[in-house]
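We now fix the convention by which a protein and its fold are recorded. The integers have meaning only within a learned vocabulary of local backbone shapes. The record below shows the convention in full.
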Amino acid sequence: MTGNPIAIFDAAARNARTIEVCVDRLQQLGANHELRLLTGRLQRLASRRRQRRKRKTRRGVPKLTKAGAAMSGPFYTKRP
């Protein structure tokens, strides 16, 4: 896969359409167990995106852990 965001998006969009077709076919077949497995996997994928978004903070304001200590890493360090 290339580093081009548009090419990556296009590949993801094609695969998303394929997943839609598979879900429709599984529904027609009454394959509830397989649909539950696929639903779980898609939900984990979506929640990974939400978790990454939540971790980002405003520039220069460190995010605190439950214990109150500042977190480290590229998203949490103060930029000059």
Remarks:
- The helical segments are 5-29, 32-55.
- The radius of gyration is 19 Å.
- Residues 5-29 form the longest helix (25 residues).
- Residues 10 and 16 are 10 Å apart (CA to CA).
